[in-house]
Description:
Layout: E1 3-6, H1 34-73, H2 80-85, H3 89-103, H4 107-115, H5 128-131, H6 135-146, H7 155-182, H8 185-197, H9 199-202, H10 212-230, H11 237-257, H12 261-277, H13 283-303, H14 308-311, H15 314-328, H16 337-366, H17 372-381, H18 390-396, H19 407-414, H20 417-440, H21 461-479, H22 484-499, H23 502-511, H24 517-548, E2 551-554, H25 556-568, E3 574-576, H26 579-589, E4 592-593, H27 602-611, H28 620-629, E5 634-638, H29 639-642, H30 653-661, H31 683-686, H32 692-695, E6 698-703, E7 707-712
Parallel strand pairs: 3-4, 3-5
Antiparallel strand pairs: 1-2, 5-7, 6-7
Helix pairs in contact: 1-7, 1-8, 3-4, 3-6, 3-26, 7-8, 7-10, 7-22, 8-22, 8-24, 10-11, 10-21, 11-13, 12-13, 12-15, 12-21, 13-15, 15-16, 17-18, 20-22, 21-22, 23-24, 25-26
Amino acid sequence: MTTIRQRRVGRGTEASEDQPSDEKNVKPDGKILSGSTGGKLWNILSVTLGGIVAISLGLLTSVYVATLHENDLWFSNIKEVEREISFRTECGLYYSYYKQMIQAASINQGLHGLVYDNKTESVRTINILERMNIYQEVFLSILYRILPIQQYLEPVYFYIYTLFGLQAVYVIALYVTSWLLSGTWLSGLLAACWYITNRIDTTRVEFTIPLRENWALPFFAVQIAAITYLLRTHLQPVQERMTLVAVFIATFLFSLTWQFNQFMMLIQALALFILDCFDMLPTAKVTWLYIIQMSGLLLVCVLQFFNSMILGSLLISFNASVLIARKIQKNLKTGNLPNRIGKIILHVLLVLCLTLLINKFIKRILNLESDEHIFKFLKAKFGFGATRDFDANLYLCEEAFGLLPLNTFSRLSETLLFCIYIFVLFLMSVAAVIVAFRNLSGSNQVKFMEKSEESTITLKPDAAYNLIHTVLFGCLALSTMRMKYLWTSHMCVFASFGLCSTEVWKLILKCVHLYTSQRTHVIKYSIPIITLLYISYKFWPGIMDELSELREFYDPDTVELMNWIKSNTPNTAVFAGSMQLLAGVKLCTGRTLTNHPHYEDKNLRERTKQIYQIYAKRSPEDVYRILQSFGTDYVILEDSICYERRHSRGCRLRDLLDIANGHIMDGLGENDPDLKPSLFPRFCEEIKKNLPSYTMHFTRVFQNKTFHVYKLAKHK
Length: 716
C-alpha cells in the first residue's frame, strides 16, 4: 500500500461611474480636453499592470504546486519505478501511453501501437485513440521527440511540468474572468489568492497529475472567460468573431482532453437555455454557443474515430432539440406575463421530449451502451429504486461520488470565501429574479443592458451567465464530491467579482439610503484590500510551513512486486487483478492486462466483474475457467481488498460481489431475504491454504505483506 512518510534527510465592464465616458471630456466646440488622453494613459497603465500581476500569479501557482509535489514525494531522488507507481490508478494508465510513444522506434510505429493495441485488454485488439482521451499524451510525446531537450529534461519531467504549467493558464483564466465581470484587476487578484489558499478544495493536481480533469479544467476556465467577454454589450463585429473563435478553440480542447466533457457542457447548455428563456442573454449569441458546443464535440468525435459515446451524448441531442424547437415556436418571446410563462412551459416540454426522442433514436441506431452505467448510478443515487448492479454500486460506494462533505464549507469559510460567495449569490439571485420577471412582463424599461441606467436593479448578460453557471455547478458539486473542483474554482471568481463590483455596492447602498458615488468607490476598493490583507496575514505562514515540510515516497511492497514481474515473467505474460493495480503493472512493466480503470466500455465492465470473482465466493474451477477465458497467465491478489476495512459492510468490494452473485454478505448485519449462503468459501482467502483443489490450478510464485501472485496451470 502506498504511503507518504517523513523524509529522512456579476458585472460587465462597460462604461460605468468609475469609467467616465469620452463625452465628459469634449468641449461644445468639439475640441477634446486633455483629461481624455490622461484617462487613456491611465487605462493602458492599469491594464498592463493587471496583466503582469495575472501572469505572475499564474507562474507562482505553477511553481507552488510543483514544489509541493517534489516535497511530498522527493520526486527528484526516487527511482523510476517509484515515480511511476506514484501515478496511481487511472493516472498510471494514461501516462503509460505517453511512455509507450516515447519508447517507440518511430512516431508512426507509436501511433500504430495505439490504434491497434493488444496489451491493454488481453485477447482483444482495441483502438486506444478511439476509446480514451489521450491525444494530449500523443502530442506531448511527439513534441518531446522533436525538440532538442532530451539531454536536459527527462520525459517524466517534461510531462509533469506541462501539467503544472497548465495551472498557470487556469489561474490566469480565473483572474481574467473576474476582472471582466467587475471592471478591476483587483478582483482577479482576490480570485487567484482565494484559489491558492483554498487549494485543498480547488485542485488536486499535485497528487493526481495525469488525471483527465487536470488537462481539461484550464481550457474550461479559458472558455468561461471567453464567453464572459462575448456576452458583453457593444462589442465590435471583429471582436465578436475573434471571441467566438477563442470559445471554439477552448471548447474543442476541453472536449478533447476529458471523457466527461459532454456532461459538463450539458450543464452549461442548460444555463444558456434558462437565461435565453427569460430574455437575459442575446439569442443570437446563445445560438452561436450551442453551435460551437456541438461542432467542437463532433470534431472530437471525428478525431476519436467516431466514438459512439460522443454521438449518443445528451448534449448533442439537447442542443439540436433547442434549435429545432426555436424554429417550431417562432413567437416565443412575445406576449404578456401569463402568455410568456405558458409559452416557456410548452417550450421546455417540447425540448425535453425532442431530446429524449433524438437521444433514444441515436442510441438505438448505434446500439450504444457505453454510458449506461452512468445513468444506472444516477438513478440509484437520487433514490429512483435500489439496485444490485455491480457497476452502479461500485460508484455509489466511493466517497468521491458521494455528497459533498460539510467540512468543505468550514474550510472555505476560514478564508471568508464561502461567506462572501453566499452573500453575493443571494444579492445576484434576487436581482436575477426581478430582472427575469420584468422581462417576461414585457417591460421595455430593462431590455438587456443598453437601457440599464433607467432602472435601479439590473443584471448584465455576462453576470447573469456566471450566476446561473455557479448555481448549476454548485448543485453538481453538492451531489457529487468529485465534481467540486468545477464549482470551487468558479466560486473564487464569483465571490471576488461581487466584492469588487460597482453595481453590487451601488445596489446595497441605495437599499440602505447611503449611496454616493464617492462612497461606492471607497467601499469597492477598500473591502477587497482588507480581505486580501486578512488572507495574507492568516494563511501566508501556513503556506510557508507547507513548503518547508519534506516527505518521501514509500511503498516497498509495490516496488518489490513490479521489480519481480519485470525480472521473472515473460514480456508476453497476461496479468489479472484489480483495475487500480493493473494500471501500474502496465506502466511499470509493460505486461498485458485483462482489465483496467478506464470504465467507459460495456465489454470492459463485464470483463472486470468477471475478473473480480477472485474476491467472491466462487469455486476454484469457476475462477480458473474465467481467468483462462481472458488468457490470464498470472493473477495478483491484494490483502487490502480481500480483507478490506476501508468501507463499511455493504460497500466493501467483496460485499458488492456477493450481492451481485446473490450471496449473503460476511459479518454481522442484515441481508436481503432472497440472498442465499454460497456453496463455496471466499476464493482469495481459501487459496492461501494450499488445498489440492486450488493447487491443481494455481501455484503461488510471489508473496509479500501486501500481494500474492499465482501462476495459472496450463491444462490441456
